[in-house]
UniProtKB/TrEMBL annotation:
PANTHER family referenced in this protein's UniProt entry, alphabetically: SUCCINATE--COA LIGASE [GDP-FORMING] SUBUNIT BETA, MITOCHONDRIAL (PTHR11815:SF10), SUCCINYL-COA SYNTHETASE BETA CHAIN (PTHR11815)
Binding positions for substrate per the UniProt entry: N280, G337, I338, V339
Protein name: Succinate--CoA ligase [ADP-forming] subunit beta
Keyword Metal-binding included in the entry's annotation: yes
Cofactor note: Binds 1 Mg(2+) ion per subunit.
Pfam families (UniProt xref): ATP-grasp_2, Ligase_CoA
Amino acid sequence: MNLHEYQAKELLKKYNVPVQEGIACSTPTEAEEAYRQIHTQYGSKFAVVKAQIHAGGRGKGKIRGTEQRGVAVGKNAEAVKEIAQNILGGTLVTIQTGEAGKVVSKVLVAQDVYYEGPNPVKEFYLSILLDRAKGQNVIMYSTEGGMDIEEVAHNTPDRIFKEWVHPGGPLQGFQARKIAFNLGLSGEAFKNCVKFVTNLYNAYVGLDCGMLEINPLFKTSDEKIIAVDCKMNIDDNALTRHAELAAMRDISEEDPTEVEAGKYNLNFVKLDGNVGCMVNGAGLAMATMDMIKLSGGEPANFLDVGGTANAQTVEAGFRIILKDPKVKAILINIFGGIVRCDRVAQGVIDAYQSMGNIDVPIIVRLQGTNAEEAKKLIDESGLKVQSAILLSEAAELVNKAVTAA
């Protein structure tokens, strides 16, 4: 589950991680008032207005049909209000959203951290995530922070440092000091960085994050270390331990079909192909998608109905798959173990009858418990459903369906 920047920063503050302070706003008037509060409380001459969407590249992205950037600086209350008015309700197109963009419903009006002081300001990069190859958490960081960290990683990988931490224990003091040293910090900034990294790692573990990225990690002119931006992803499997985090979910930022699938406990991921997939089990789903590609098609989705498939879940799966106009055929590939094949077959028949005429070819491959009974049900149903026992048969039928389309 992804969080907005303003939500992530509020969570970090609970772990004593210093952040760029700001106020989330839904209207231009709220943004104007937020500027006045920030000006009074922090003495900021400027304020930064940031579009709140689940995507990166906001600073370079533009509101569709305008030259308005997704992140802009306002020098007074009137300017902040105008920027917010230009952003709110608009569709922000960034390198990560693609041409579809995302509609902006909130902006974050944040304090100016580039104030003058005795020392130069610096921008760094730092993120924490799981290194699956090593089975350990890894802290990735660089002296080259800012918007173009991807280019830094591609062109100068030697400037990306990594520090691994065993998930069974905390971040060690020497590791936090090593990070601060590699960032070239000293004195008060060094001490503040050690505290920052330690508390940030505690937040990563305590919140069950899948990924936590700070870009830029910022050193102010008076040697403070703060998070100017924050991208946070929470492990969905851990949300049962964090009811307060589950309540922060913004479904308007998610694919509507994936949200609908979740209501039926279906594991669904939309792809760009032309063959809809309905399977039980993630491993079988991956094998099925490979088979579709080998047969000349492209998978349009990943849909795992799990081990408790029935007429309701099968019908929901059909409806979700058919919302995609690119789908030219549907392949149902079920291995009967926990769920019997005849039960799935009856679910297919019931769903087909409930939905009426389905224009795209449907290929059903059932194997395992009661597979023969299932094939008989399909064959005698009188419906335009093609059945297969072998994977090779299903592949051939998919190939014919795609070619005919």
